[in-house]
Design goal:
The chain has one domain: 3-Layer(aba) Sandwich (Rossmann fold), CATH 3.40.50.880. It is globular and about 45 Å long. The chain has seven helices and eleven strands. It is of the alpha/beta class. The structure holds manganese (II) ion.
């Protein structure tokens, strides 16, 4: 069974369940006890979960007043995992904070606070229930994301949940945008040169019961299986 590494975070349940339901084995790791190199050496795939904000000093900006940090050490540990995963061409699925970290790890920047920095933005922070639809996204034709979702929906538009106040701004090296919200907020990025490297701004794992985004986890775990 493909071992899917998930760095520890406060709400693991839905990530683990989404991975299990497509035949992956979630393995939770922590920078407090595990070495990034040893983790990657035994991993088949890397799933980055949601959480607090990436420290803006990592992309050369002062902290916005809304800065809400992740657990201490998480930025550095997850950046190390991403770098090693890229070197090993290991499949990566990066969710919410994960897509933001993926972009920063490649030298990109973030919108630090959507309500403050994007006039007339759609509501991107809809908390309850976790699978509440907040807005649609427009997917880029023939991207990894669109090819996976094509099995599920006959459309390049899909409805997503949304619990983020930050977003990708300037793209990091080697990445392309593959979904945007109608207000222009970036909702997915990919590295087409990698076996499987997809970041999504929404929370596909919250739909594990009903399967709307099962193809994303299937594609990810299938890539990890090879
Ligand atoms: Mn959103």
């Amino acid at each position: 069974m493909p071992q899917i590494i998930i760095p520890a975070c406060s709400k693991l349940h839905d990530y683990e369940e989404a991975v299990r339901r497509v035949g992956g084995e979630p393995v939770v790791v922590s920078g407090d006890t595990d070495s990034a190199a040893e983790v990657i050496a035994r991993a088949d795939g890397l799933l980055l979960a949601g959480g607090g904000d990436v420290d803006p000093t990592l992309y050369g900006e002062a902290r916005h007043q809304t800065y809400d940090p992740a657990e201490p050490g998480r930025d550095t540990f997850e950046m190390d995992l991403l770098r090693l995963a890229r070197d090993a061409n290991l499949p990566v699925l990066a969710i919410c904070r994960g897509i933001q970290l993926l972009n920063v790890a490649r030298g990109g920047t973030l919108v630090q606070d959507i309500p403050d920095q994007i006039p007339n933005a759609l509501p991107h922070t809809v908390r309850e229930p976790s699978f509440a639809i907040a807005h649609e996204v427009w997917m880029a034709k023939d991207s990894l994301l669109e090819r996976l979702m094509r099995e599920q929906i006959e459309s390049d538009t899909c409805d997503v949940n949304s619990r983020h106040h930050q977003a990708v701004k300037d793209l990091g090296a080697g990445l392309v945008v593959t979904a945007t919200a109608p207000d222009g907020v970036i909702e997915a990025i990919e590295d087409p040169s990698q076996r499987f490297c997809l970041g999504v701004q929404w929370h596909p794992e919250n739909f594990y019961r009903t399967g709307e985004f099962r193809p994303l986890f299937e594609g990810f775990v299938d890539a990890a299986r090879r």
